[in-house]
Amino acid sequence: MNGFMNNLRNSFQRLMYGRYGFDQYSKGLIIVSFLLSIVATFTRFTLLILVSYIIFAYVIFRTMSKKIAKRSQENQIYYKLTFNLKTKLKNWKLVLVGTKTHTYYKCSSCKQLIRVPRGKGKICISCPKCKKEFIKKT
User: With contact defined as beta carbons under 8 Å apart, do 109 and 131 qualify?
Assistant: First the structure.
């Protein structure tokens, strides 16, 4: 059985040699495809299933592609778009919830995110970027 698995792995490695492979953009597309298929299942909207299959076929195409530079460029564009979105969502969560040890505030003038310790009562916070001071309760 172990020899069979080694042969299978070697065959897969030979197949994928010189091909682009799986990246973050492909991962995002698979998640979108999966979500569309779930929505289509509950809504009985067959067009969504078709779109889901098309996206999945595109993921297979990207994975098996030998145009590495073009696929890498697509991944970089995806990474830039999602990095900005992830950063904004993370900052938004910190402002709303904070952490167990710190509270986060945004400066009203320059929008800088400022971290202050929790449980210190009313404190005067000075923005490190624009030096504006404001009083908040931690």
Answer: no
Asked if 67 and 135 sit in the same domain, the reply is no
Residue 29 inside a domain? The answer is yes
Q: What is the pLDDT of residues 43-73, one digit of tens each?
A: 988 899 999 999 999 999 999 999 999 999 9
Q: Say whether both 72 and 22 belong to one domain.
A: yes
Position 93 in a domain: no
pLDDT digits (tens, 9 = 90+) for 74-128: 999 999 989 888 888 888 888 777 778 888 888 888 888 888 988 888 999 999 8
